[in-house]
Amino acid sequence: MRVKPWKAFLFFLPFLIVFLLFWALPFITGVVGSMYNYRLGTNRNDFVGLQNYETILFSESRHHDNFFLGLGNTLIFVGISVIPLVIICLLLALLLDRVKDPWKKVFRTLFFMSYAVSVTAVSAIFIWMLNGPGSYINVTLSRLGIISAESPIGWLSEQPFAWLSILGATIWWTVGFNMMLFVNALNEIDTQLYEASSIDGASYPKQFRYIIMPSIIHTFWFVLLNTTIASFNLYGQSYLITRGGPGQSTSSLSLQIYRTIMENKNLSVGMAMAILMGFVVMLFCMAQYLLTQRKKDYMEVRK
User: Fold this and answer.
1) Does 2 have pLDDT greater than 80?
2) Domain segments of the chain: what residues?
3) In Å, what is the CA distance from 34 to each residue of 158, 233, 271?
4) Would the pTM of this model clear 0.85, i.e. be above it?
5) 136-189: per-residue pLDDT in tens?
6) SS3 labels along the chain
């Protein structure tokens, strides 16, 4: 039975409306707004063209310094977080895949529960665990004799501990989502492949290399790309746990954009920063995509 074009369009219409309202319209508004000199609380709204971008990229202004400070800190977080977030989630999924029912459902629920917690609650938990000499972690390490009570670790006030604290909070908070993606991919693998390889004497590492990884490779690249984008959008953990400190060493680009708009009242420069941030993320996504395609072509040649 052939579906009429207008009926097919009705199914597509909800997505089109959501896309226009929550992506296309804000994006166009941001691009246009970044070409004006608009400050919150004033009536100034002069057209300045690309001057805001020039100020951010090439001038010696505070906006230039704040943008590249935030970008550098964000790249640090992307560099230290993406690989652990992907590998830890994959390892947990592989372990969970070998657990028998009904325990598999129990552990799957427990791991995913953290993802349902808000970033505010996650930050409150980690502040309680890490903030100050009397924090739970410092007291525990002191009782175990690992550190002295007179020399506690400044988890939120010293580097590299501040980054490790944000990384730990992020892993605990988001591990359930990526793990579930891998678990669903592993569930799609035909169990007869495992049985046949076991009969041929294949060990688990060989099963992982020749059966598991080729079967979940598309999910792996999706998780890698999605995790990279999420790490670029670091905001809540940095703002709530360390307040961007010590100094401004954990002040992410999203946090700098927030401060430019809400504290400095400069909406147009903040919009320009957001557009530039989106451009940087797009470049990283394109690079990952090209690397993915090269890897897939290499695997096809080997076959």
Assistant:
1) no
2) 33-115+172-302
3) 36, 20, 5
4) yes
5) 999 999 999 888 888 889 999 999 999 999 999 999 999 999 999 999 999 888
6) CCCCHHHHHHHHHHHHHHHHHHHHHHHHHHHHHCCEEEECCCCCEEECCCHHHHHHHHCCCHHHHHHHHHHHHHHHHHHHHHHHHHHHHHHHHHHHHCCCCCHHHHHHHHHHHHHHCCHHHHHHHHHHHHCCCCCHHHHHHHHCCCCCCCCCCCCCCCCCHHHHHHHHHHHHHHHHHHHHHHHHHHHCCCHHHHHHHHHCCCCHHHHHHHHHHHHHHHHHHHHHHHHHHHHHCCCHHHHHHHCCCCCCCCCCHHHHHHHHHHHCCEHHHHHHHHHHHHHHHHHHHHHHHHHHHHHHHHHHHHC
Cα 207 to the center of its chain, rounded Å: 30
Q: How far apart are CA 250 and CA 73, in angstroms?
A: 6
Residue type for 138, please?
A: N
Residue with tokens 């992907």: 86
Please check whether the domain covering 33-115+172-302 is classified as CATH 1.10.3720.10: yes
